[in-house]
Every structure is written in C-alpha cells, then in structure tokens.
C-alpha cells in the first residue's frame, strides 16, 4: 500500500491518521504542505521518526524546495523522490490511498 | 470609511484621512493554497492608503517568510521575495509567535525578513488593540 499525504501536520490530522493506519512495510509519500512533517525538530517529528523505522517514508523534492525546506533538515531515513519517483511508487503499489 | 477609501492623489483629503491600525493575520502555508498570496496582495493595497499596518505570522503562516523558497519546480510564483520589499512601503511591523516557531522547529535565522518574535499572550494583546483585523 502507498499512502499519500498532502496536508500540513500542524493544520490537519491527516498525517497523524495516516501514520496510525499504515502497517509495517507500507510506503508513505509526503507531498505539498505535508512536506513540513518531514523536517527535524518539530512537534510531530517523533511520530514521523517512528514511522520511518517501520515503513518507507518518501518526500517529494520539488515540494520541499518550493517551501525552502532543505534536505539537510530532513528526518533521518526519509527518502527524497522527484516526479518520476512519484510515478514509480504508484506503479510499484497496487493500492494507493490518498489522505486528503 | 469614506476618508480612508478616497483615491490616492487628493492630497488634502489624504492628509486629513483617518489612520487606522490594521492587522493582517497570516495562518496559511505559502504554496498549498492561494490564501497567502491573496493576503499579500491586500497588504500591498493597504500600503497605498497610508494605514498603520501590522503583519502577524502565526500557525503555518510563518512558513510564508522562510528563507530559500524556490517554487519553480511546482510552477508557482516565488512571492516570498515580496516580503523583503515591504519596508519600502513603510510596512515594518512584522510579528511572529514564539510558540508556533517552537512547534515547527523554526528559529529567527530561518526567516528572510526582520521580525519581532513575541509570545502568544503578547500577540493576543496586540490583536486586541487593532481597529481592523483581516485573517486568512
């Protein structure tokens, strides 16, 4: 299963709900305002770090760059993908769940 | 309101115009929705009317003034640069709430403009003293 999240974790509970429902080995891709959840030192970082240990967590590079969130601020274990990588993830997983 | 909304150019009317304390409260992250850009447009318009303008950045709104934004990869305009031009319009009262910065792991060095970092309680007091508050 691939989960996509596009809402800021400080404004909506989409990321928290996604992390609570994602099972071991699932892929989670953070896009749009959800990329703020991939950065270190935030109030949600502990939950994302825990998820990165049991799931594969990805973040969309162009959305990070747009928001000035540099890659050296990312939580360890999170992988940056480009749009091609986004497509690859959707091809690799038969089910995609978008947490809007 | 008529004395405030008169068109620029009528100097006498303008000189006697009422100056109100305006606050624009920014609560939205910059590129995920149109709110941030629209508020900035309002701010620039308000500058033409010589009002006492205050900008507050709370919740995700403080992400609007984070350094190093490059939205070319998502085909959006980099309006963050416009915040650096606001002092040219005598808009220099920018406030960021400390609690929100801590929640987001942000420091004053992360911002591309000079801001005054204040507590939530101080922000509440500041809001209380305004004549007009526009929030988005």
Explain the overall architecture:
The complex is a heterodimer of chains A (100) and B (136). Chain A is α/β, with parallel strands linked by helices and 100 residues long. Chain A is built from four helices and five strands, in the order E-H-E-H-E-H-E-H-E. In chain A, strands 4-3-2-1-5 form a five-stranded parallel sheet. Chain A is globular. The mean pLDDT of chain A is 97. By secondary structure, chain B is an alpha/beta fold. Chain B has a five-stranded parallel sheet with strand order 4-3-2-1-5. Chain B starts with a helix and ends with a strand. The mean pLDDT of chain B is 91. At the A-B interface, helix 3 of A face helix 5 of B.
A few lines on this structure:
Chain A has 100 residues and is of the alpha/beta class. Chain A is 34% helix and 20% strand. Helices cover 31% and strands 18% of the residues of chain B.
Features:
A: 100 residues, alpha/beta, 5-stranded parallel beta sheet, B: 136 residues, 5 strands, 31% helix, globular
Spans where pLDDT lies below 50 across 5 or more residues of chain A: none
User: Quaternary state, please?
Assistant: heterodimer
State mean pLDDT of chain A (0 to 100 scale): 97
**Helix tally of chain B?**
6
Question: Mind sketching the topology for me?
Answer:
The complex is a heterodimer of chains A (100) and B (136).
Chain A: E1 2-5, H1 14-21, E2 27-30, H2 45-54, E3 56-60, H3 61-66, E4 79-81, H4 83-92, E5 96-99
Parallel strand pairs in A: 1-2, 1-5, 2-3, 3-4
Chain B: H1 2-5, H2 11-15, E1 21-26, H3 35-47, E2 52-57, H4 80-83, E3 93-97, H5 98-104, E4 116-118, H6 120-128, E5 132-135
Parallel strand pairs in B: 1-2, 1-5, 2-3, 3-4
């Amino acid at each position: 299963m691939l989960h996509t999240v596009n809402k800021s974790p400080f404004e909506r509970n989409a990321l928290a709900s996604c992390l609570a429902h994602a099972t071991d080995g699932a892929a989670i891709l953070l896009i749009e305002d959800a990329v703020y959840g991939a950065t270190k030192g935030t109030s949600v970082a502990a939950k994302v770090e825990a998820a990165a240990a049991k799931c594969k967590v990805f973040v969309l590079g162009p959305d990070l760059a747009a928001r000035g969130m540099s890659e050296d601020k990312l939580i360890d274990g999170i992988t940056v993908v480009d749009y091609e990588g986004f497509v690859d993830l959707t091809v690799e997983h038969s089910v995609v769940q978008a947490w809007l | 309101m008529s004395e405030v909304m008169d068109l620029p150019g009528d100097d006498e009317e303008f000189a006697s115009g009422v100056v109100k304390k305006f606050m624009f409260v920014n609560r939205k992250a910059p590129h995920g929705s149109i709110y941030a850009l629209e508020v900035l447009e309002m701010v620039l318009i308000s500058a033409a009317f010589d009002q006492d303008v205050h900008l507050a950045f709370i919740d995700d709104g403080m992400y609007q003034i984070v350094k190093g934004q490059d939205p070319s990869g998502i085909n959006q305009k980099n309006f963050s640069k416009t915040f650096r031009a606001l002092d040219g319009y005598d808009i220099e009262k920018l406030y960021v709430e400390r609690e929100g910065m801590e929640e987001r792991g942000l420091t004053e060095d992360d911002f591309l403009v000079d801001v005054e970092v204040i507590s939530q309680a101080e922000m509440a007091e500041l809001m209380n003293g305004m004549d007009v508050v526009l929030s988005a």
